[in-house]
């Protein structure tokens, strides 16, 4: 892992730790996004430089390979012509180009590895930027929700009649229920009184009938004795 990559990981970890503790998370995220955007721009420039350098190294390798092959063909032609001295000169240059190929090929391999690494880092930076930007949208929505809730609380506190309206209707409902209960109780009491009077009347009538029958029986008994 490169030093650049390790620093970025620490930065993201620090951001995650500070977000929930921050009084202004959106501002903290914006600072991180600004820093990350600068890193992306620098990484893109480095990527372009690595690409240009790799192409230049590749050209050097290709040119050296062409010259190596060309000198080998010249050495063959010189041998066929019996010019051993010219053949040796051509082979010496061929060896020089082979050494150049080996040197530039090593540089090209290293440059391509660096290019691959910076491309991976650039991809991770862009992914981090998108991830944190999405988190920024979440915190913006969260802060806006909190702001609206605070405004609603302020409005509820300043509007005196609002909170008491439900209580007022609850008290009215309780009062009406009490009236209804009293009315039902009086109605039941009257009905019970009427039933009692009816029962009492029936009882008195029965007693009177019994007394009347007793007196009639007494009269009949007295008449029989005379």
From TrEMBL:
Signal peptide: none
Keyword Coiled coil attributed: yes
Superkingdom, taxonomy of origin: Bacteria
Regions annotated as coiled coil: 43-74, 101-135
Keywords: Coiled coil
Record-linked Pfam families: PspA_IM30 (PF04012)
Protein family: Belongs to the PspA/Vipp/IM30 family.
Protein name stated in the entry: Phage-shock protein
């Amino acid at each position: 892992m490169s030093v650049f990559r390790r620093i970025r990981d620490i930065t993201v970890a620090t951001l995650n730790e500070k977000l929930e503790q921050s009084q202004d998370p959106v501002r903290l995220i914006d600072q991180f996004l600004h820093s990350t955007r600068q890193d992306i721009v620098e990484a893109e420039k480095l990527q372009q430089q690595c690409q240009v350098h790799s192409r230049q190294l590749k050209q050097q390798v290709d040119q050296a390979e062409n010259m190596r092959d060309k000198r080998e063909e010249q050495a063959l032609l010189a041998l066929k012509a019996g010019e051993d001295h010219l053949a040796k000169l051509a082979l010496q240059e061929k060896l020089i180009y082979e050494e150049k190929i080996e040197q530039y090929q090593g540089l090209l391999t290293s440059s391509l590895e660096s290019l691959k690494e910076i491309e991976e880092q650039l991809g991770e930076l862009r992914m981090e930027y998108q991830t944190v930007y999405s988190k920024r949208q979440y915190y913006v929505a969260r802060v806006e929700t909190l702001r609206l809730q605070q405004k609603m609380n302020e409005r509820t506190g300043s509007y005196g009649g609002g909170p008491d309206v439900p209580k007022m209707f609850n008290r009215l409902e309780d009062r009406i229920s009490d009236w209804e209960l009293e009315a039902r109780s009086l109605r039941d009491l009257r009905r019970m009184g009427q039933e009692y009077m009816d029962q009492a009347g029936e009882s008195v009538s029965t007693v009177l009938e019994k007394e009347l029958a007793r007196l009639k029986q007494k009269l009949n008994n007295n008449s029989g004795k005379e």
